[in-house]
Specification:
The structure holds two protein chains of two kinds. The relative contact order of chain A is 0.17. The longest helix of chain A has 26 residues, at about 5-30. Chain A has helices spanning about 5-30, 45-55, 70-75, 80-85, 120-135, 155-165, 185, 195-200, 210-225, 260-265, 265-275, 280-300; strands at about 60-65, 140-145, 170-175, 180, 180-185, 205-210, 235-240. Chain A has a five-stranded parallel sheet with strand order 1-2-3-7-6, sandwiched between helices. A two-stranded antiparallel sheet of chain A has the order 4-5. Chain A is about 45% helix and about 10% strand. Chain A is of the alpha/beta class. In chain A, strand 2, helix 6 (about 155-165) and strand 3 form a beta-alpha-beta unit. Chain A has a single domain, classed as Thiamin diphosphate (ThDP)-binding fold, Pyr/PP domains (Rossmann fold). In chain B, strand 6, helix 8 (about 150-165) and strand 7 (about 170-175) form a beta-alpha-beta unit. Chain B is built from 13 helices and 14 strands. The longest helix of chain B has 15 residues, at about 5-20. Chain B has helices at about 5-20, 45-50, 60-70, 85, 90-100, 100-105, 135-140, 150-165, 215-225, 245-255, 270-285, 305-310, 315-325, and strands at about 1-5, 25-30, 55, 75-80, 115-120, 145, 170-175, 180-185, 200, 205-210, 235, 240, 260-265, 290-295. By secondary structure, chain B is of the alpha/beta class. Classes of the chains: A alpha/beta, B alpha/beta.
Chain lengths: ~325, ~325
């Protein structure tokens, strides 16, 4: 069970969880209105994972994220206006609209890039950890991916190498139970994915991903070990996406009542119930976040689309 | 002029660049303790340490993809993929990741990494250790691709590739590693060859032959043979596959009126087809004959030496192809 946390940290936790949820709600609004092209992989329901994890690392550290990566970006303090603009394909977005929702990068805050290929970003994150080790910095990499990616070859290849060479990296599995429509319990015998750590000779932790303090505490320990040269770990956070795989998924494959069971353990509701923050403090946080979200939405809405001249730039340096 | 083995020219390039820039490292199967499958990294692990000449497990996607993360964080990694055939295992990391970071990030970051790999049928290594898959890799935007044809170009192109800020794939030929070449005296640590230029290696006026890698020297030999019969063949060493230096080819074809493109890859959807499409609109009215290609047939590389010798273009088959055009 997680220890008590400070008021300051409690405020940070609630701010980030609320910010992620509000941001994603606005993304979904754009999607439903037909103003967001493409796919919307929402992080709603999983906010405690990104929030607890980001609080456990320093400003110099790296993050590898996924197609469901908005939450990691927001919790890391990315510019929500530039994020939203990118998601809408606008010229003012992080990638001038060329990457979109699944390919947001901000190396200024250590975000190595999101990825549209499940498991595709695990090698990049592992390489950043190798680089930190070679350069002799104390940087740690957090590598996020889902239960789906844990069955990709890159998972095995990279964790094996990171373990063999004691690389400073923490593999955070967001086990939300479903790879699009497929229940992971139908395609995987052992449902606690962190147990795979035994095979690599590294620590593995299976924790409640709906509990932000537990995520923070466990990842803090894993990060400390990594920073001290003790090598990588796997932290599996059991969590749930309230929405479908993407915006058009109605979740017909889920058993009745499952969503309600998880919502009864909602990370924000359960956090509020612990009484770290007063009603007024919560209201104040929400008001301030709402204002930031409104600004981001306005910025993205009013931004222009990229010029046709952008089509053939940025393929190479020149 | 000094003599140097092709593999030692590569080693020289690696040694010089690793000595010059501490951010250069190489990772791959057998590159460290084993000195490299082709002995191109002999002694470099001892000289630069385990982390800079890193023996990987057999995980092509993993270690190739790791180079992207290294490149994003200030390093200049080189991935050695033993055979181009094995590159297919790492294809997502190359095509979907390495090639696209620059574009997907709106130019925020570029990937200064190199992939060294090898091709070459003719050594009875059969269908999965012999292919030339260059055309398959060249299809995807985002990486430059070069193919050296001797020790000089092997060194000069690799050094340029390591210093380049974009991904560069360097494709070496296995039949070259143990060949001794002439190396000009001025080809020292400052030797940097452009990554986007072909070279006219033999001037002629009756026929243009474009070749790459191992086929260049063979084409030159055939050209020398034809010279005795009073035929003058211009041979162009392609060197760069992406981009194709079409200006050099166009200039030559405008002079000769005839173009033969030789390639060790299978004929269908290959590099010669691409060159033809790029060059044809510019030379249409200069041509005295259709553009011809001479490639490997559209079958997997056979094992039996009796069949394999029918697979790759040889001086004999090149001569036949050239005579067809003359």
């Amino acid at each position: 069970m997680a220890k008590k946390i400070s008021k300051e940290l409690a405020k940070e936790f609630y701010t980030n969880m609320y910010k992620i949820r509000r941001f994603e709600e606005e993304v979904f609004e754009f999607y439903k209105l037909g103003q967001m092209a493409g796919l919307a992989h929402l992080y709603i329901g999983e906010e405690a994972v990104a929030t607890g994890a980001m609080a456990a690392i320093g400003p110099q550290d790296y993050i590898g994220t996924t197609h469901r990566g908005h939450g990691h970006m927001v919790a890391r303090g990315a510019d929500m206006g530039k994020m939203m603009a990118e998601i809408l394909g606008k010229a003012t977005g992080y990638s001038k609209g060329k990457g979109g929702s699944m390919h947001i990068m901000d190396m200024d805050i250590g975000i190595l890039g999101a990825n549209g290929i499940v498991g595709g970003g695990i090698p990049t994150a592992t390489g950043a950890a190798y680089s930190a080790k070679y350069r002799g910095t104390d940087q740690v990499t957090l590598c996020f991916f889902g239960d789906g990616a844990s069955n990709e070859g890159t998972f095995h290849e990279c964790i094996n190498m990171a373990a063999a060479w004691d690389l400073p990296i923490v593999y955070v599995i967001e086990n939300n139970l479903y790879g699009i429509t497929v229940d992971m319990r139908r395609v995987t015998k052992e449902h606690d994915l962190a147990k795979r750590a035994i095979g690599y000779g590294i620590p593995g932790y299976t924790i409640d991903g709906m509990n932000v303090e537990e995520v923070y505490e466990t990842i803090s320990k894993a990060v400390k070990d990594a920073r001290e040269g003790k090598g990588p770990s796997i932290v599996e956070c059991k969590t749930y996406r309230y929405h479908g795989h993407n915006g058009s998924d109605n979740c017909a494959y889920r058993p009745a009542g499952e969503l309600e069971e998880w919502k009864a353990r909602d990370c924000m509701d359960s956090f509020k119930a612990k009484g770290y923050l007063t009603e007024d403090e919560i209201k104040e946080i929400e008001k301030s976040v709402d204002k930031d979200i409104e600004k981001a939405v306005e910025f993205a809405s009013e931004s222009p689309y990229p010029d046709a001249s952008e089509l053939m730039t940025d393929i190479f340096v020149d | 002029m000094r003599k140097i083995f092709y593999r030692d020219a590569i080693r020289e390039a690696l040694d010089e660049e690793m000595g010059r820039d501490p951010m250069v490292m190489m990772i791959g199967e057998d590159v460290g303790v084993g000195d490299g499958t082709w002995k191109c990294s002999k002694g470099l692990r001892e000289k630069y340490g385990d982390l800079r000449m890193k023996d990987s497990p057999i995980s092509e996607a993993g270690f190739t993809g790791m180079c992207i993360g290294m490149a994003l964080t200030g390093m200049r990694p080189i991935a050695e993929i033993m055979f181009e055939d094995f590159m297919l295992v790492a294809m997502d990391q190359i095509v979907n990741q390495m090639n696209k970071v620059s574009y997907m990030s709106g130019g925020q970051k570029h990937i200064p990494m190199v992939i060294r790999t090898t091709i070459g049928a003719g050594r009875a290594a059969a269908a999965q250790h012999s292919q030339n898959l260059t055309a398959a890799v060249a299809h995807f935007p985002g990486a430059k691709i070069v193919m050296p044809s001797d020790a000089y170009t092997a060194k000069g192109l690799l050094k340029s590739a390591i210093r380049d800020d974009d991904p560069v794939i360097v494709i070496e030929h296995r039949k070259h590693f143990s060949v001794e070449f002439d190396m000009p005296d001025d080809a020292d640590e400052n030797l940097l060859l452009p990554l986007n230029k072909a070279a006219v290696v033999r001037e002629g006026k009756d026929l243009t032959v474009v070749a790459s890698s191992f086929q260049v020297q063979q084409a030159v030999n055939v050209a020398k043979h034809l010279e005795k019969q009073g035929v003058s063949v211009e041979v162009i060493d392609l060197r760069s596959i992406v981009p194709i230096d079409k200006e050099t080819i166009i200039k030559s074809v405008k002079k000769t009126g005839k173009l033969l493109i030789i390639d060790e890859g299978c004929e269908q959807f290959g590099v010669p087809a691409e060159i033809t499409a790029q060059v044809l609109p510019h030379v249409f009215y200069d041509l005295d004959a259709p553009i011809m290609r001479h490639c490997a047939p559209n079958c997997p590389v056979p094992f039996s030496p009796a069949l394999e010798k029918l697979f790759v273009p040889t001086e004999k088959t090149m001569l036949k192809a050239m005579k067809q055009l003359l």
